[in-house]
């Protein structure tokens, strides 16, 4: 097992942790990305013969110089080692890798890793200090454990699509981003870090198991609290909030803005700034409860007020008054936001094929062990020879394994 190394000067707090990443598509790769950005040495196991990961193919319509943009953004900071796990020699290479690893990540359906000889029980017996991270549609226990799960399916089952949309009676709406995929990856990374801390104290490894379904459920904290306390089912509120008002988007003269003026002092500052007698009606708007009870009246008044000036004009006035508000950025506009840039959330990397590319930064900042993007997504098999030499294979053996279709080298795949 690779020894954990605490460092106050090295790259990322997980420096010295080796991760073998057998995941694909999004949830698992997001977990591996979080760990890699925090300094872990992540080895991404790809397929042999070349069969593009759903996020790698160079025929993806969203590409830069023939290289998949989705692949690059979730696979930076990782090393690429393609293996044919249907061959015994491929499984032997994987076994050697895992013997020197701290963490194994996988998001196969239950039973796949067992059939390959790398299931949790088998690996735990051989390597009792190993952390085994698994993410699936519904988790490794319960009546749905064997079901395939996708973001759309789990968003619906977790209740998210019942509370997202324009209002009652309107068609269900899926939140724009793949929320359960991304959240499940972050949850698994959190669990892996906690398990590493436990192992550091006890020497004991463990399985860390989460799912897209559970990742969706945790987004319902507010709405579940309401349902638990009242038996009511909160429905879709557009951009509004089930507990607070005004807390939503409003149209302006030239666009939209978001406003958060629900608590008492903020509401008073907002009313003083707007200086409109309609908002001073205590019976209708004097308390948050009153504003929620008369939400449609409040929205009508604020729609009328905000349409009189541009978004920029309103944002300057609201900021001066100490009232939280913001623009509705497009994704490209967010990429240019001065705060996003100042927090290094938009970062440039040089890819050997795609050239200079932009990516998103690490959303957690460390004062002593900073992390974040440092290497672009690897070419297919870019690190195969280096990694196998580290496991004791010679050049002739590596060439033979490549010729036998056991491993992948960069020249064996188009694009990168």
Describe the protein's architecture and organization.
- It is a single chain.
- The chain has 18 helices and 13 strands.
- It is an alpha/beta fold.
- The protein has helices at 27-37, 69-74, 88-99, 112-116, 120-126, 151-157, 179-202, 212-217, 221-230, 264-274, 282-285, 288-293, 295-306, 311-320, 331-335, 338-342, 384-390, 395-403; strands at 18-22, 41-47, 63-64, 67-68, 78-83, 103-106, 131-136, 207-211, 247-251, 256-260, 325-327, 346-351, 355-360.
- It is elongated and about 85 Å long.
- α1 packs across α7 (179-202).
Mean pLDDT: 93
Q: What composes the largest sheet?
A: 6 strands, parallel
Cα separation of the termini: 31 Å
Helix content: 25-40%
Return residue spans where pLDDT drops below 50 for at least 5 consecutive residues: 1-9
CATH top level class name of the largest domain: Alpha Beta
Q: Structural class of the helices, strands and pairings?
A: alpha/beta
> How many β-strands, per DSSP?
13
Broad shape: elongated
SSE inventory with pairings:
Layout: E1 18-22, H1 27-37, E2 41-47, E3 63-64, E4 67-68, H2 69-74, E5 78-83, H3 88-99, E6 103-106, H4 112-116, H5 120-126, E7 131-136, H6 151-157, H7 179-202, E8 207-211, H8 212-217, H9 221-230, E9 247-251, E10 256-260, H10 264-274, H11 282-285, H12 288-293, H13 295-306, H14 311-320, E11 325-327, H15 331-335, H16 338-342, E12 346-351, E13 355-360, H17 384-390, H18 395-403
Helix pairs in contact: 1-7
């Amino acid at each position: 097992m690779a020894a954990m190394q605490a460092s106050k000067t090295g790259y990322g707090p997980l420096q010295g942790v080796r991760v073998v990443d057998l995941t694909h598509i999004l949830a698992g790769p997001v977990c591996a990305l979080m760990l890699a950005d925090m300094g872990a040495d992540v080895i991404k196991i790809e397929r042999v013969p070349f069969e593009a990961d759903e996020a790698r193919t160079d025929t993806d319509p969203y590409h830069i110089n023939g290289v998949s943009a989705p692949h690059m953004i979730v696979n930076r900071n990782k090393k690429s080692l393609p293996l044919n796990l249907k061959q015994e020699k491929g499984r032997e290479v994987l076994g050697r890798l895992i013997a020197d690893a701290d963490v194994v990540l996988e998001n196969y359906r239950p039973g796949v890793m067992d059939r390959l000889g790398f299931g949790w029980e088998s690996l735990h017996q051989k390597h009792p200090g190993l952390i085994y991270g698994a993410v699936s549609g519904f988790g490794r226990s319960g009546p749905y454990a064997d079901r395939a799960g996708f973001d759309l399916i789990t968003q619906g089952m977790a209740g998210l699509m019942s509370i997202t949309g324009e209002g009652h009676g309107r068609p269900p709406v899926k939140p724009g981003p793949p929320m359960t995929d991304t959240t499940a990856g972050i949850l698994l990374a959190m669990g892996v870090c906690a398990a590493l801390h436990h192992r550091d104290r006890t020497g004991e490894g463990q399985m860390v198991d989460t799912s897209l379904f559970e990742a969706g459920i945790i987004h319902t904290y507010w709405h579940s609290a309401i349902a638990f306390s009242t038996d009511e089912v909160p429905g879709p509120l557009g951009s509004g909030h089930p507990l607070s008002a005004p807390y939503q988007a409003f149209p302006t003269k030239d666009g939209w803005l978001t406003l958060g003026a629900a608590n008492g002092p903020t509401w008073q500052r907002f009313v003083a700034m707007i200086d409109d007698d309609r908002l001073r009606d205590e019976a209708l708007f004097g308390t948050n409860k009153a504003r929620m009870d008369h939400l449609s009246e409040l929205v009508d008044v604020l729609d009328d007020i905000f349409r009189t000036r541009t978004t920029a004009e309103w944002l300057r006035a609201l900021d001066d008054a100490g009232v939280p508000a913001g623009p509705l950025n497009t994704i490209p506009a967010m990429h240019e936001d001065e705060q996003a840039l100042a927090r290094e959330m938009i970062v440039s990397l040089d890819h050997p094929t795609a050239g200079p590319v932009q990516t998103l930064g690490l959303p957690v900042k460390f004062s002593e062990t900073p992390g974040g993007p440092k290497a672009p997504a690897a070419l297919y098999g870019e690190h195969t020879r280096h990694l196998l030499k580290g496991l004791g294979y010679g050049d002739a053996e590596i060439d033979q394994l490549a010729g036998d279709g056991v491993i992948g080298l960069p020249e064996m795949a188009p694009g990168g």
